[in-house]
Design brief:
2 domains, Arc Repressor Mutant, subunit A, mainly alpha
């Protein structure tokens, strides 16, 4: 169960779903039309309300809602077919586990050279 927050539209949003949608936009957003991308970016990355987006893009609030609904379905469909976000999350989890293993190594009996090598490995993993 994720953390919920109150947004300006008067609804509660689940932070996990907002994060998930932001990732989907990051990975697949360029496959949307420019209009769809702009609406999704404003809503999920800039936290604009439907009314604010409608006013800025000079369309109806219902048009914004319909566009978001279609775009979300399209992004989720792309993720099911391509799985890029899932692979990204899997790699990130593996990275965190490996860094934890490296952190847990008892370095008290190691030479300075070996400690320096472990530090380089940690740095390289963090930069991946």
């Amino acid at each position: 169960m994720g953390v919920k927050y109150f947004c300006f539209t008067g609804e509660y949003k689940n932070m996990d779903s907002v994060y998930e949608m932001a990732l989907l936009i990051d990975f697949y957003g360029q496959m949307l039309t420019k209009r769809q991308f702009d609406i999704m970016d404003l809503h999920f990355n800039s936290d604009y309300s439907l009314g604010e987006i409608a006013q800025q893009l000079n369309i109806s609030r219902q048009g914004v809602h319909d566009n978001i609904k279609r775009s979300k379905a399209l992004l989720k469909k792309m993720e099911v077919k391509l799985g890029l976000v899932d692979r990204f999350n899997t790699q990130k989890n593996k990275e965190e586990r490996i860094l934890k293993y490296l952190e847990d190594i008892n370095k008290s009996n190691m030479s300075e050279e070996d400690i320096a090598i472990l530090k380089k490995i940690e740095d390289e993993i963090k930069n991946v």
